[in-house]
Amino acid sequence: MMEDFNSETDSDYTSYWRDWFISSRGNEYFCEIDEEYLTDRFNLTGLNTEVAYYQYALDLVTDVFDLDADDDLREQIEKSARHLYGLVHARYIVTTRGLAKMVDKYKKCDFGKCPRVMCEGHPLLPMGQHDIPNVSTVRLYCAKCEDIYNPKSSRHASIDGAYFGASFHSMLFQVYPSLVPAKSLSRYEPRIYGFRVHASAALARWQDQYREDMRVRVLDAGILVKYTEEEEMEAEDDDDDEEQEFETKGERLVGDAASGRMDMGI
């Protein structure tokens, strides 16, 4: 809330809104947007329909807010200002200047480190799974294991993922290819008393489970399977019948051959 910001007058309140926002707990993922970017209306195209009290919110973000509003209206404008800043932030961080600022924060591990042990504390990047607001919260992407994680702090976990966008992390590594880490080839190996678990046994268990899962999916889809358990038993029975029939035919041929020799007087 705004009372967390130590200011004595309303002029301080409006003059340092962005400083207050960036320094507030829970907003460590955000970088400061340049004033030139905020004042260029081209960069704000379409946001007036997505943000309530758009003009008042923009005035507050750009430090020109001078409306004598009551507490309720001021709170609504403050909420809209935070939302507006987040939406503009998603556009700003894919610019050259914005990427440079986020790279600095990335190198300092301001976004945290990967919780996966095998990644050895590799720094993370914030990202959104959607570009539309109010769909999903922010996630953290690890370029080493190429997986995403939830933030540890509840303050960070409540940030809208649209404030970073689904393309930012990919764009950053396209512009800064030297930051792309070597992929982690190490995997955890289960051991018993220091000895690795037999790989073929683990592979067999995986194959059995995969085969069972596939059988269930195929049956649920209504597709006839040739080698289900029931059909395997039927196939074995058919094989036995065919083998018995073959033996019977063989005995008949032998009998017919013997009868022919007898008729010929052999």
Can you offer a commentary on this structure?
There is one protein chain. With 266 residues, the chain is mostly helical. It folds into three domains: 2-92, protein kinase ck2 holoenzyme, chain C, domain 1 (Orthogonal Bundle); 109-179, N-terminal domain of TfIIb (Single Sheet); 191-220. The protein is 48% helix and 5% strand. The protein has ten helices and five strands, in the order ααααααβββααββαα. It has helices spanning 10-15, 17-23, 35-39, 54-61, 71-92, 96-107, 154-157, 168-175, 199-220, 229-263, and strands at 125-127, 139-142, 147-149, 191-192, 195-196. The strands form two sheets. The chain has a three-stranded antiparallel beta sheet, with no helix packed on it. A two-stranded antiparallel ribbon has the order 4-5. A hairpin with a 4-residue loop joins strand 2 and strand 3. Helix 4 packs across helix 5 (71-92). The protein starts with 9 loop residues before the first helix and ends with a helix. InterPro entries: Casein_kin_II_reg-sub_N (IPR016149), Casein_kinase_II_beta-like (IPR035991), Casein_kinase_II_reg-sub (IPR000704). Residues 230-245 have a biased composition (Acidic residues). This is Casein kinase II subunit beta.
The fourth-level CATH homologous superfamily of the largest domain is protein kinase ck2 holoenzyme, chain C, domain 1
Overall 3D shape: elongated
Low-confidence stretches: 1-15, 227-231, 257-266
How many domains, as an integer? 3
The second-level CATH architecture of the largest domain is Orthogonal Bundle
Q: Regarding CATH, which class of the largest domain?
A: Mainly Alpha
Determine the mean pLDDT: 79
Strand-pairing-aware structural class: mainly alpha
Fraction of residues in helices? Answer: 40-55%
The separation of the N and C termini measures 115 Å
What is the CA-atom radius of gyration, in angstroms? 34 Å
How large is the count of helical segments? 10
